[in-house]
Amino acid sequence: MNYNEIISEHSVPIKMWTQGVPVEAAAEQQLRNIASLPIIYKHIAVMPDVHLGKGATIGSVIPSYKAIIPAAVGVDLGCGMMACKTTLVAADLPDNLLPLRLAIEQAVPHGREFNRKQRDTGSWGRPPEEVNQAWAKLKGEFEVLCVKEPKLANTNNHNHLGTLGTGNHFIEICLDEHGSVWVMLHSGSRGVGNAIGNRYIEKAKQDAERNNVHLPDQDLAYFEEGSEHFHDYVEAVDWAQRFAQANREVMMQRVIAVMQKIITKPFQTHMEAINCHHNYVQKESHFGEDVYVTRKGAVSAAKGQLGIIPGSMGAKSFIVRGKGNADSFNSCSHGAGRIMSRNEAKRQFTVDDQVAATLGVECRKDSNVIDEIPMAYKDIDAVMQAQADLVEVVYTLKQVLCVKG
């Protein structure tokens, strides 16, 4: 048995793949709160990148019977990773990667900065044609969602499609252990997903209060099948998760187009490609029952399924193949996992620390990205060792270029 198990009275068990990695006491208490809910099925599976989240713990797999906890799914609905292998090798990349980084930053809106006179620089002023084409496939269903929730029409939706965002979202050029060039990126459903998530979290809280449902944490309010908002929430989340997937596809398309302009050697892409969520909910069959599985900072790792586990800025990342571990509900971690808050990282580290930690990586090295310094995250090697019975490593990637929001 490669996991630790917490068994408490009046709760389902908590199975933790955390051997050799730190776990905050506050995160453990949060897990106990979730495990005490009457809707939890069988047990909770905890990944080695586990850390404190809002209501529900990041790095957890939460199976629920005939109910969903909106705050467990979160507000970056469908956040996830995309990676594709190219026919390029390390020697095909230019010696100076700065022009390529600047070109990618020009091609994909990122970050968030605006004032009263200007648009948010992290969104499109005038979306390009590939964004419009992708939006056309999503627009009709979005308009239906807006009939039920009119405020969604005022969100960044069309003009956020194909944009990166902020925080730990990134675009990277990586090399695997054989010298092949990969493109990898991380983003989700942007402003519209955030609005959907927050709207239904509030509805769930209101329902719990109205129905006098006792909860250890108000953020663990849930919708049960057949309740007033359940179907609308499932419909909205499904749309947001498809928006997130399309968002990553558009960005990948634009990054590759930039590479084809700057790198003179013709090359092919998508030799091997993965586009996977790590903040999402879907109905699955486990131990003979159909249940809703919420992966909050976790990736599906069904037997033979490819997934992506990124390290931190300046660390290794992994393309993995799932082993189909039933006790983990066929899941693995979504990354290294933070060991300190963003504010704490800014207090502890300097720009010089950031420069040293990202040696050999073409990326921003300034005070605005110190919160993403590798030392703010768990050791990715320890994280991978702790989940050796969940996945096998197919490729080990090391970034040579990184764009941050």
Automatic annotation (TrEMBL):
Keywords: GTP-binding, Ligase, Manganese, Metal-binding, Nucleotide-binding, RNA repair. SUPFAM superfamilies: Hypothetical protein PH1602. The keyword ATP-binding does not apply. InterPro entries: RtcB, RtcB-like, RtcB-like_sf. Its EC number is 6.5.1.8. Transmembrane segments: none annotated. It holds the Pfam family RtcB. It catalyses: a 3'-end 3'-phospho-ribonucleotide-RNA + a 5'-end dephospho-ribonucleoside-RNA + GTP = a ribonucleotidyl-ribonucleotide-RNA + GMP + diphosphate. Its cofactor is Mn(2+). PANTHER family: RNA-SPLICING LIGASE RTCB. This is 3'-phosphate/5'-hydroxy nucleic acid ligase. It comes from Vitreoscilla massiliensis. The lineage of its organism: Bacteria, Pseudomonadati, Pseudomonadota, Betaproteobacteria, Neisseriales.
